[in-house]
Amino acid sequence: MTSPGHLADLSAPSLRSETCPCRSGMSLRAVIATDVERCRVLAELDQGSPSPVAAVRALTFYPGLYGVVAYRLAHAARTSSSPAPLRLVLSVFAILLQRFMTPMCGVEMSAQAHIGPGLFINHAQGVVVGALEAGANLTLSHGTTLGRGTGGGGTDRLECPVLGDRVWIGVNAVVAGGIRLGDDAVVGANAVVLKDVPVRGVAVGVPAEITSRSGSFGNVVYRGMDVDPSRAASLARVGTAVDDAA
User: Fold this and answer.
1) Which residue has the higher pLDDT, 153 or 12?
2) DSSP bridge partners of 147
3) Which of 136, 139, 88 minimizes the C-alpha distance to 111?
4) Does 78 map to a domain?
5) 91 CB burial (10 A radius; 0-12, 13-18, 19+)
6) DSSP H stretches of helix in the chain
7) At a CB cut-off of 8 Å and minimum separation 6, what does 229 contact?
8) DSSP secondary-structure letter at 13?
9) CA gap 79, 18 in Å, rounded
10) Alpha-carbon gap, residue 180 to 157, rounded angstroms
11) What's the pLDDT tens digit per position in 128-152?
12) How many domains does the chain have?
């Protein structure tokens, strides 16, 4: 069972606040701009070419973006170095904003989650994200549930998932507990992930099993991806002996 629990997050310890991947050395404004840019790139693909219409489409046809912005503000308030009283006021305000936005965009995200820039929620509705840690350019589909859980294994200790860069999560998928998803991993629609997914692993089914190591390269789209050295290095290893032996 996941535990988003926004109000509980005010006093709960962060996962790794000292190395939080959310900012990646960027300002809050820059991180939000990167989230918006991902929506714009997808809008340009839908539109067929870059245009002012695509920019408007990005701000109007992707309600998940507003849930992402509300989460960013709540997370920034929670991890702020401001004095405790001010931080509490900011956190309460941000959480109330999230509660207001949830029925509008169908996204419920814990301020305790650490998620890198370029977060994109496709179609939104029914998305629940609890405490976790994720890298850049994460893509979530509607109906996905991620966060704390026992993850099986006969233990009652709650643990949080850790996701790498450029991970793609399909419709109605569940990732709960101390699960690790490597860079460029894919979780298929309706999958329930109970064990780690390797780099470029494609996990489908209930419980999810690895069916290939082709990665998320065809699913995760963002500005500058063709010149991203990390993505290029990962893509170059698809189908190699390294993957075959893993």
Assistant:
1) 153
2) 176
3) 88
4) no
5) buried
6) 28-47, 52-60, 64-78, 84-105, 229-236, 241-245
7) none
8) P
9) 10
10) 16
11) 999 999 999 999 999 999 998 875 5
12) 1
Question: Is residue 204 assigned to a domain?
Answer: yes
Cβ atoms within 10 Å of 246's Cβ, excluding its own:
14
pLDDT > 80? residue 103? yes
Question: 192: domain CATH number?
Answer: 2.160.10.10
Is 240 exposed, middle or buried (CB count within 10 Å of its CB: 0-12, 13-18, 19+)? exposed
66 pLDDT higher than 70:
yes
Say which residues have a Cβ less than 8 Å from residue 27's Cβ, sequence separation at least 6.
none
- Where in the sequence is the domain holding 116, given as residue range(s)? 112-215
CA distance 237 to 240: 5
Could you tell me the two tokens for 10? 């005010």
Length of the chain: 246
CA 72 to chain centre: 12
Out of 53-62, 63-72, 116-125, 135-144, the most confident range is 135-144
Pairwise CA distance, residues 119 & 107, whole Å: 13
Q: Are 197 and 179 in contact (CB under 8 A)?
A: yes
Summarised one tens digit per residue, pLDDT across range 188-218 is 999 999 999 999 999 999 999 999 999 999 9
Task: With respect to residue 13, please indicate whether it lies within any of the assigned structural domains.
Answer: no
Q: Judge whether 129 lies within some domain.
A: yes
Residue 207 token pair = 């419980």
| Per-residue DSSP letter, 90 | H
Structure tokens at 218: 């065809």
